[in-house]
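For this section, I looked closely at the sequence of one protein beside the tokens encoding its backbone, which the following lines show:
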Amino acid sequence: MQDATGAGRRLPPLNSLRAFEAAARLGSFAAAAEELHVTQGAVSRHIQQLESWLGRPLFERRHRGVVPTPVGAAYGTELRGAFDLLAAATQRQQEAAAQQVLQVNVPGTFALRWLIPRLSSFQRGHPAIEVRLATSYAPLAALGREVDVAVRGTAEEAAGWQARPFLAERRLPVCAPAVLREAPLARPQDLAQHTLLHAATSAGAWDEWLRLAGAPGLQPRRALTFGHFHLALQAALDGLGVAIGPAALVAHDLEAGRLVQPFDGPSLPPWRYAAYMPQARARSAAATAFVEWLVQAADAGSGGV
């Protein structure tokens, strides 16, 4: 009985099997030699070796060529099926190896407002890379080892990670056009007639902007606070008030007219993003390609500084 390791499996030399299968299929030693890129003499020697190994002839040698014996014809058919199975199994492995999986971890707002709207261009350029995107605001030190690329702010502690800055964003007030129709915003002091939208993850942004705009301590008509920044931006899109909007993350909305920037300035100090790759393991070609694409996408005009 054959054991699980295949140690009891008795097989003739693979080169002999290949030579015989090709010759039986093509009906010619010369044609088999051409297909296998060897000499006709090599094919003849391989088949003789196989016949000796089996203890029976596989071809009838005739004046104008060779013809498989009945045993040889049947054996050739069986080998052809076996080689087809080997070829199919090998192709599946090659296809699996060609499909590279890239684990990417980014903040939720960045994913929704910047990355996902642009991700199709990366997929078109790199169809063999499967991006598996996860969102998290966790620090880099808390990420698992399976992460290939992470996006965080450049202020993030980066021990054990190599950083590649790629995007900076101007942060200015934004709102839906309908908000301005209800109460125009000609100067920062006019914000007293509006609802200011706050995000808990960027607390103090409005206070800082109002100070830079020369309206410290301004009291708005109303204030709404949301747990995450993307919720505050969605509220702005829905006309609930005015939010501090990073231009890079709302560029498509500004271009489409869904949001407007009522003031040209001032802008808060830019928030900068960087792509991080772990230093503990070799950098993959897929990770390098993704980071290079992030840089190119930002340089192509994403609303950054």
